[in-house]
Each structure stands twice: as structure tokens, then as C-alpha cells.
Specification:
Helix 10 links the parallel strand 7 and strand 8. It is globular and about 45 Å long. The chain has an 8-stranded mixed sheet with strand order 1-2-4-3-5-6-7-8, sandwiched between helices. By secondary structure, it is α/β, with parallel strands linked by helices.
Length: 255
């Protein structure tokens, strides 16, 4: 386990690392809201097809094994800066960022703010637009006030709604961090994550699970150079439904 400071108080973002050499090319895995990179991506990084690659499994602030300062903003930009601190601390440049859902949005923002850190984006159902439809996830959390979510039973209600698999990691996230992260994700960025992705000079791959429905704006994304692939028999947690498809994308082979 390694760590890097990401705020003036000395709070640290932590990650686990395997394979490759410290000065080699790196694959950096970034989890979604209320998740942990080791739980969602360790089996991908360990696949024989990716043997020998340097892999960093990063937990964003407020999640997993990283610190959870109570005075931190937890916006997408804040998370991107913390992720940049991890890559700077690890001596990584030109990384492949593999981001799921909210983690994909953070990866897009990082590529926009620090393009020298990112060679390639491999996104699994990343959030691209502000104010998504209300669900039990980010929009459901952000629909409550921070006080209601943290102290009024909102966190417990969300854990009951999301089901045991997601709750297993979400319950380890700090409630304040979770609410502020969800709020920042729903609010989005300026320019939007979609616009940043379309204008990024990085190589870009977007994986959409067929069970999640059609990707909004698919043709526009493809026209901007994003390789969009629909993965059969997969939903939002594509890395569990079809790990083979994600491995192939990370290995730079079409799904």
C-alpha cells in the first residue's frame, strides 16, 4: 500500500500496486461512487492477459482505505486533483486510466486538467452529463440535504435500497464524503464531462453494458473519436458481468 498527500492538512489518498516497474507504463483503476478499487478491479488487473503491467488500484478520498477529511469539498475536480497527487507520488506519466461510473467522470476531469498524466481512457459507463434521472445512487443521495443523509437516517435508507453487493463497499465510505461526492457528480462540471471527453487528446474507449440501454449521444461521441462499444449480457457493473470484455479493452483489443 502506498499513499500521497492531497490537501493542506496532510490527508492522504492510498492505493495498492502490483506488477511492472516503478518507471514503467501504468494502468490506473478508479472506482465508482461508494465503491473500492480493489473490490471492483483487482480481478481485472490480475488477469493473465494483463500480466506484467504495472497496476495501481486507487481509492478516492472518503472511500475505502483513503483518508476522509470533513472539510474537503469532494467535487469531481477535488477527486481529480487527489488522483493526480497519487500519480505524481507514484511517478506516473502517460497512464491508462480505467474508470467506472463516477470514477470514469473523475478520470475524464483528470485528463482535462493534467493531460500529461493520461495516455488512454477506458471508461465503463462513466457519468457524462449533469442532473441524471433520479435513482438510488448519486441522484438519490444528492436529493437529500447533507444533514438528512448523514444524521437523519438517509445513509441507512440508501444502503437498504442499493442492495447487498453495493452496500458492502458503500457502508465503508464516509457519509459526509459520500453525500458531497454524489452532489458534485449530479451537479457535474463546466465544461461538462461529455465535452471534456469529446475534446480530450487521449485515446478514448467507452464501454456500455447492453442491459443498461442505449448510450445517450453515442453517435456524437464516436464522431469525436471515442470508440464506443456495447457489451452484450452486461449491465452497469460490467467488470463483474463481463470481466473478459473489460480485460480485452484494457489490453487494447476491441471487445
Amino acid at each position: 500500500m502506498r499513499e500521497a498527500k492531497f490537501d493542506r492538512r496532510g490527508s492522504v489518498v492510498r492505493w495498492t500496486e502490483s506488477g511492472g516497474t516503478p518507471d514503467g507504463a501504468a494502468s490506473v483503476y478508479v472506482h465508482g461512487l461508494g465503491a473500492m478499487s480493489s473490490v471492483y478491479h483487482a480481478h481485472i488487473a490480475a488477469d493473465p492477459a494483463l500480466s506484467g503491467r504495472r497496476s495501481l488500484l486507487v481509492d478516492l478520498p472518503g472511500h475505502g482505505i483513503s483518508d476522509r477529511p470533513q472539510d474537503f469539498g469532494y467535487t469531481l475536480e477535488d477527486h481529480a486533483d487527489a488522483l493526480a497527487a497519487a500519480l505524481d507520488g507514484a511517478g506516473v506519466r502517460g497512464a491508462d486510466l480505467i474508470g467506472h461510473s463516477m470514477g470514469g467522470a473523475v478520470a475524464i476531469v483528470l485528463a482535462h486538467r493534467r493531460p500529461e498524466l493520461v495516455r488512454r481512457l477506458v471508461l465503463t459507463e462513466a457519468n457524462l452529463d449533469p442532473y441524471p434521472p433520479v435513482t438510488a445512487g448519486s441522484s438519490g443521495i444528492a436529493g437529500m440535504s447533507e444533514e438528512e443523509f448523514v444524521h437523519g437516517g438517509g445513509f441507512a435508507r440508501v444502503l437498504a435500497r442499493v442492495g447487498p453487493a453495493w452496500a458492502a463497499t458503500m457502508r465503508l465510505a464516509d457519509p459526509v464524503a459520500l453525500h458531497r461526492t454524489a452532489t458534485g457528480l449530479v451537479r457535474g462540471t463546466d465544461p461538462t464531462m461529455r465535452r471534456m471527453l469529446m475534446e480530450s487528446p487521449a485515446e478514448r474507449v467507452f464501454l456500455q453494458g447492453a442491459l443498461s440501454g442505449e448510450l445517450t449521444g453515442r453517435e456524437e461521441l464516436m464522431a469525436s473519436g471515442v470508440r464506443v462499444e456495447t457489451v452484450p449480457r452486461a449491465g452497469h457493473v460490467l467488470m463483474f458481468d463481463r470481466p473478459d470484455a473489460l480485460v480485452r479493452a484494457v489490453a487494447e483489443r476491441p471487445v
